[in-house]
Hints:
alpha/beta
Amino acid sequence: MGKYDFDKIIDRRSVWAEKWDVKEGELPMWVADMDFETAPEIKEMLIKRLDVGAYGYSYVPDEWYDAYISWWGRRHNLRLQKDELIFSTGVIPTISSCVRKLTTPNENVVILTPVYNVFYNCIVNNGARVLESRLIVRDGRWEIDFDDLEEKLSNPQTSLMLLCNPHNPVGRIWEKNELARIGELCSKYHVTVLSDEIHCDITDPGKEYVPFATASDICREISITALAPSKTFNIAGMASSAVSVPDPFLRHKVWRQINTDECGEPSFMAVTAVVAAFTRGEEWLNELNAYIYANKRYCEEFIAKNIPEATLIHPEATYLIWLDCTKITKGRQDLAYFIREKTGLYILPGELYGLGGQGFLRINLACPLSMVRDGMDRLRKGIELYNIG
């Protein structure tokens, strides 16, 4: 028995939680946030700050920089420097700002698909074009098709690659040699890499992600890295993230655009939450990762026993599972909607995530085991009804 209670059920309907804006009786396991209470150490510091009673403008203090530098240094072997870090209100605002600044209209941004669906919005809404390089499954493992990736990067209209590390939704932790090869190809074709590493701390016990910037000197020189504690500690509503840009010329461009877009100013809670998370939340995170791993194992065993026509490749990172239901859907794209209508289980259809997503389901397991069990029972029932129909 650990120090923290991850079995506790929290009523989030009463606090305007987007995830829980659903009908009575529905079970939301869609958007990537948690149904766990954040670390009590974070809650304690936030309450202490609220008790001051004055909620005016804030600035980014040294404690914020120190928190990032210490955390990434000791947990991920990434040696950050203070002058490399930029505050941003979120990873998505950072991505949108970078697409605006580092591409001209109709230039290409390469992504590895299937991938987080909001990437598409960040690219298209800012005047660039999506260029998809589809991941492949080889020997039961998601892999990068480097021949295809090089073809896409070599396009003269390609100026930016948007990397998801670790990868959402397939849950791969990219290895150092894979990241280094991406860096070599991008450098060869003069492509900047923006690495979204928001899921980096949610990994299986004993597993460690590799920051893109540590894979090689080339990777460091051409990279922009988006960092945040929001997924890790369930504080996404605090609107707080960081951008690490080692190259000073590139850094100025990113800093200038983030501030032009007015997403470079912190709220008083945004700063407090980050300092609390990275200085006091480590023990909580270690227990959280063990709990999420157990949830994943439960689902793998349940699916193998009760839904054998579905295939699940174990995700090394994130609290999401990416379930292959192509043998069930047989080309149709209505499974997720059918399951929600018939059982109330709200999960996301794979086609939202681009090439290679058709016939898959994305399911969020960052919730108490009792909810996971309920979700799996609903999933089984929904697929049974779907097969009958």
